[in-house]
What does this fold into?
Amino acid sequence: MAEQRRLKVFRGTNERGELKEYRVAAGEGMVVLDAVHMIQAEQAPDLAVRWNCKAGKCGSCSAEINGKPRLMCMTRMSDYPAEETITVTPMRAFPVIKDLVTDVSWNYEVSKRIPAFKPRAPDAPDGTWRMYQYEVERPQEFRKCIECFLCQDVCHVLRTHEKHDQFMGPAMLVRAAVYEMHPLDEADRRDHLRHEGGIGFCNITKCCTEVCPESITITDNAIIPLKERVVDANYDPLVALWRKLTK
Amino acid sequence: MIRVLQDKGVHSGIDVHMECTIVRLFVSGGRIAGALGYFRETGRFVLFRTGAIVLATGGIGKAWQITSNSWEYTGDGHALAYEAGAELIDMEFVQFHPTGMVWPPSVRGILVTEGVRGEGGVLKNATGERFMFRYMPDMFKGDFAETEAEADAWVKGERKQNRRPPELLTRDVVAKAITQEIAEGRGTPHGGVLLDIASKQGPDYIKQKLPSMYHQFKELAHVDITKEPMEIGPTIHYVMGGVKVDAETQESTVPGLFAAGEVGGGMHGANRLGGNSLSDLLVFGRRAGLHAAEAARRGSPHISDSDVDITMQEALAPFEREAGENPFAVQSALQAVMQRDAGIIRDRHGLETALAELDKLKVRALEVGVTGSREYNPGWHTAIDLRSLLSVSEATARAALERTESRGGHTRSDFPDSDERQAREQIVVKQEGARMTVRREAQPPIPADLLRLIKEGA
It folds into this structure.
């Protein structure tokens, strides 16, 4: 039942590294993370990999499989032809710590700087609020985020142009949307999103939505409405028209 | 809930030391003085000097082969407390969740939520029989449905006139029933039984109520649970046993050392009920935090440099033995022993065998070697975790051998009945010198106000 599979796994650090080839006996239903664990247990105990739940819920085992950002625990070996060598590399948008483990702490720093959730004063004397179910459901979609950062990894603004110092990336825009679209929230994040967050860098190619393992409609439901809010605060169509006419 | 808490933490300026593993707690003058750990990323050590520590390390599931727990459930908090001189109680009570995935092999043990049965899912053996009606313990007779029609009506919401389905009996009862069905040859070829919701609820309802289960089976097993049954079997899920704490403060028998959540003992008796872990950590997590903050104000006692040096040398020792045994091999040998001899059904012979095997594994653990650097080296991490796994495995086996009855999450085939004389006794495990000692202690009486509430509830 077990068949021999070939894997190439990145071994090394940010400074230097190489793809090393391993062979594993792949059983039925095996996912790429299982193969990496088999290599670790039998051939290379120091092979570094982050993982936790093995069920696509914790967002720890993000990597690139044949160049595509994916969760290793949710990618079956049988999705690739038996004769194909499966290549596993760390996420490209973040510095490598070792092997498949990357330093994603930049995300936590960005997250800290997003203005916090600020609820309005309670609606009732007992300190509680009243909300409609449909109002609550809107930010709920963004709460599905498991912080795998695959959307950050695929985003060309971060991945190719390395604008980490100017653009917060789709995952953090989703985080901002959680607060921003909460029915009780009163904080104004438009300035933060425009300047520090660099929301204008996003040119809505929707790559982030495509890779999201939780199927969050990142571009359409989070980023575009946030862009609209920012535009609404900063561009007055009448003024723009006046400028055009008087030019 | 986790995400909201996390956000609150992020914006409250809490320092988080990510991927930092604690290897030892220091006690000085009978009080907690601090902890030594290492950062996985760099392999560098860090010493925390503090008069108060809250353990919140979860359980010990990784001591078995089939578990719903992830890699970090190696019982570190239990073992650190034990080594610091704290007492562990109830370590024989280990909960098997009745429904873990069994196929394909790579997902074996992953949890299938109780919600599937709550929404009407039924358990069937390979012959298609809905077998749980045959497993009603005397204690629960009269509380559960006796016919399929009654159970179906309850699921449909007619709850006043009908009793709940027997699939919702306590976790130990259902897990043992499944084990018996499989042992008697009525299991599936993959060694499980069938959990069927497709024949009880429509596809849209299932997808709406159980989205993550639908997703999990579709992605990981290529099974559409709206059309086919799931293959499931018992999986280690939770340990009721843990660090003995004072219920008001969550402080252990070592001043300054607190425990909250699964690592704490005594909260759930012999068998935790579904959902109670969450309430446990909300209530007692808060108490632990409040009292630890107070203890921290008393300052931290001195930690001797030589204690720190010795601990670091011990932790680094596997690097000196590059040719030593692979730590992953020792870990999997330990899991095999516990699964076979200290699993869901135990007996004296098996437990004695387990203890003898654990003695041999202790020697092997001292001889493991690791290669490579200290930076993010899972082989090294596993070598260090072995010490905790060995301590909690031994504690479980010794306590299980001591309790000569069956109760909740502890079943002895040589003592199949509950023994009322042991009902109010707790088994306490403590380190004396280098030896693990076991003794019985009377359970503290239920406080009067709680007794009154229980009576009102009934």
